[in-house]
Amino acid sequence: MSRIKVPILETQRLVLRGWKKKDAADLYAYAKSPNVGPHAGWKPHADIRESRMIITQMFQQNMTWAITIRGEDIPIGSIGFEPDAYRPHINSREMGYSMNEDYWGQGIMTEAARRLLKYGFEELGLATVMIRTGEANKRSQRVIEKCGFHYEGTLRQCYRMYNGEIRDSRVYSMLREEYEELVSLEPVDKMW
Hints:
Layout: E1 9-10, E2 14-18, H1 24-31, H2 37-40, H3 48-57, E3 63-69, E4 72-83, E5 92-99, H4 108-123, E6 128-134, H5 138-147, E7 150-160, E8 166-175, H6 176-185, H7 188-191
Parallel strand pairs: 5-6
Antiparallel strand pairs: 1-2, 2-3, 3-4, 4-5, 6-8, 7-8
């Protein structure tokens, strides 16, 4: 397996950087919570060994960034792009994220998601960014709405959770033209 090196992305408060093996304890600190993973469809991590495996076999093999507060190189969340299964023949990616519940409600994930959108559209030349979330995940839906995604619809009974439960997924997307319009309406240093 070859490791994907992601560039460092910065915002006013955050530094998004690649994951390192030594981040396993910090990932485990928040990924063990039953309030974090199940909202995204994955089981809470059982131990630091599992978190290290997620870093090396998933995060480092894909475009996944550790979210850190500027000046404190401690991961408090993850955000990344993976192939968009619904648009395989165009330059589109699906965004996914999770965050330590101690940092919920502070606008951090919205800030990180906006920065990743900027990178995706301006550096990767994406045509579309898609994101999915569960019906009950109101926090994620709020981040999605604040970023300016458009609701496409709900795929019924389409996602099998780690525990076997099947759930619906709300699907949102943003087209390049929509991103460009948002950026033209809001100063880049303020919103993006």
